[in-house]
Write a structure and sequence with these properties.
single chain; alpha+beta; three-stranded antiparallel beta sheet; 3 strands; elongated
Amino acid sequence: MWSTGQYVGAGVPFTTVVNMLSGVLDAPVTNRTALSGAFDLKLEWASDFGSNNNNLPSFVTAVQEQLGLRLQRERGPVEVVVIESVQQPLRTKPPCARGCDASCATAARPRQSTRRSR
């Protein structure tokens, strides 16, 4: 279960834990441990969103104290996806009602309304 300042899970794959860490930190997280498999865990931390519970540790401290994982900030190469260009999507003609392909003469005609004006 995911909520602000808390993560609780049973049978959670370690890859999911790494993804959760990455999401909360809003930064890539690399697993350099030998851990794999599934884990039952509960993690609680002081939220940045106005939590009234000052008895809870920060996220990084909670990860170390409650899960035994040490997070270390490093600089390194990160793979990213870059949008190089943009163009209008191709507009295709809708198929005709008879099931013909879009090149059919009926498909090119707009559908007429059956409502009559008064």
